[in-house]
């Protein structure tokens, strides 16, 4: 009875999951190994003894470097790859967005692939017929639904794949970096649908290099490293540990966060963006040099492409040193503000009283994100500004402090 309750509380249970591939110098060696009954391959272990329990209704993140085994683990959970060893228990229908176009027949039309994929996901012909128009409408493919999918762009693949995956109303949804493809409008639709899916108590496995998305979406997270579980637990703690490891590994490397005006990180035209970011004083004079402890204002201007559409969202800011060391970050959502109604030409100001930064060069990083604080509309960085401090204090920030030093008389 106790075991039954434990199982019913979990959507997925993985016990000692291991996946090893045989690597041959060439295909001929595979045949030679069979004939001569002599080992001619080397074993490459992608996953090593993974134990995992994911509760029903939990949104679970998977992070790690490329090659850590993330995609292989998701394929095993989705039952498209078999483990070499270990046991997995699934409690509920699974729908997965793995490689774009996986399971599509390129010669068939989008409409024909709806029937093919939905059937493979367990729907009957009658169920597919009843859902077909909703799938087409959500995908927004229009007349392209009648064309072979081999003519589709990667963004169109995503539209069709996501629409089909969500249509089967799965108990468990697996997403592997798929949302990184496609235009901003459809990415936003996908995230909105995911949030509805999450609120309905379904289970989500989300794998992404976008750690902000993982932190906002996921209750718990697994950090995979070299095929093993480096850490499992509450998402903020796992991400902090992962970031510490990455910073240590990549010490001294410089990463540019500048995004060209009017275009997002995927090269798509923006719908909401930042016109400018300025570090100013109380009279709104732009500041290139400030003093430690000086009041500083961050002033930004928001632009919108289509005046007829209404966009709500949050603003995120970060202060970085010129070596990309992160000093501080927050969002309007973290600060308890309701989503902001963006409008064209909107000016927003954030004040930092007595900014405690010590001598160095710094910049602000500003992001516009949707009302869920998940989808990124735009990200820009300010001009570099210098902080002067003549007191000789060390490190990054000044901390308020007070000395108490005993005299010999007090000790006596």
Fold and architecture overview:
The chain is of the alpha/beta class and 412 residues long. It is 26% helix and 33% strand. The chain has ten helices and 19 strands. The protein has helices at residues 2-9, 27-36, 70-77, 110-120, 125-139, 154-167, 184-199, 211-217, 235-249, 408-411, and strands at 10-23, 42-55, 59-63, 85-90, 94-97, 172-176, 203-207, 220-225, 228-234, 272-280, 289-291, 296-304, 311-321, 326-331, 340-342, 346-352, 360-370, 376-381, 385-388. A hairpin with a 2-residue loop joins strand 8 and strand 9 (228-234). Residues 1-7 and 252-267 have low confidence and may be disordered.
Low-confidence stretches: 1-7, 252-267
Number of domains: 2
User: Mean pLDDT score, rounded?
Assistant: 86
- The fraction of residues assigned to DSSP E strands is 25-35%
What sequence of helices (H) and strands (E) makes up the elements?
A: HEHEEHEEHHHEHEHEEHEEEEEEEEEEH
H/I helix tally: 10
Determine the structural class based on helices, strands and strand pairing.
alpha/beta
Q: Given this structure, which CATH class of the largest domain is correct? A: Alpha Beta
Largest β sheet strand count, sense and barrel closure: 7 strands, mixed
By CATH's scheme, which homologous superfamily of the largest domain applies? P-loop containing nucleotide triphosphate hydrolases
**CATH fold call of the largest domain:** Rossmann fold
Number of β-strand runs: 19
The Rg value, from CA coordinates, equals 26 Å
Helicity, in percent? 25-40%
**CA-CA gap between termini:** 69 Å
- Structural shape: globular
CATH architecture of the largest domain: 3-Layer(aba) Sandwich
């Amino acid at each position: 009875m106790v075991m039954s309750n434990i199982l019913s509380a979990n959507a997925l249970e993985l016990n000692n999951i291991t996946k090893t591939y045989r690597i041959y110098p060439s295909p001929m060696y595979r045949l030679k190994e069979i004939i001569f009954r002599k080992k001619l391959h080397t074993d490459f272990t992608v996953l090593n003894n993974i134990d995992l329990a994911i509760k029903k209704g939990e949104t679970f993140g998977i992070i790690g470097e490329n090659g850590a085994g993330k995609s292989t683990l998701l394929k095993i959970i989705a039952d498209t790859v078999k483990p070499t060893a270990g046991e997995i228990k699934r409690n509920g229908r699974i729908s997965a967005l793995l490689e774009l176009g996986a399971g599509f027949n390129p010669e068939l039309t989008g409409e024909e692939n709806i029937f093919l994929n939905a059937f493979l996901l367990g729907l009957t012909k009658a169920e597919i017929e009843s859902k077909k128009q909703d799938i087409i409408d959500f995908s927004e493919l229009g007349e392209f639904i009648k064309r072979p999918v081999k003519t589709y762009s990667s963004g169109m693949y995503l539209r069709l794949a996501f629409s089909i995956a969500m249509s089967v109303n799965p108990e468990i949804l697996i997403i592997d970096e798929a949302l990184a493809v496609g235009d901003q409008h459809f990415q936003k639709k996908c995230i909105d649908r995911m949030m509805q899916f999450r609120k309905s108590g379904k289970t989500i496995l989300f794998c992404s290099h976008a750690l902000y998305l993982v932190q906002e979406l996921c209750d718990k997270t697994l950090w995979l490293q070299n095929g093993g579980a480096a850490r499992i637990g509450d998402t903020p703690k796992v991400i902090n540990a992962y970031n510490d490891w990455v910073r240590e590994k990549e010490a001294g490397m410089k990463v540019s966060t500048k995004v060209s005006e009017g275009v997002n990180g995927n090269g798509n035209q923006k719908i909401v963006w930042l016109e400018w970011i300025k570090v100013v004083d109380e009279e709104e004079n732009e500041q290139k040099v400030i003093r430690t402890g000086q009041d500083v204002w961050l002033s930004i201007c928001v632009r919108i492409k289509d005046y007829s559409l209404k966009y709500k969202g949050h603003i995120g800011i970060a202060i970085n040193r010129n070596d990309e060391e992160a000093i501080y970050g927050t969002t309007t959502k973290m600060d308890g503000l309701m989503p902001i109604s963006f409008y064209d030409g909107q000016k927003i100001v954030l004040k930092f009283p007595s900014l405690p930064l010590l001598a160095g060069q710094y910049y602000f990083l500003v992001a516009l994100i949707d009302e869920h604080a998940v989808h990124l509309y735009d990200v820009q960085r300010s001009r570099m500004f210098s902080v002067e401090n003549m007191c000789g204090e060390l490190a990054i920030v000044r901390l308020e402090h007070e000395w108490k030093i005993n005299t010999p008389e007090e000790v006596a």
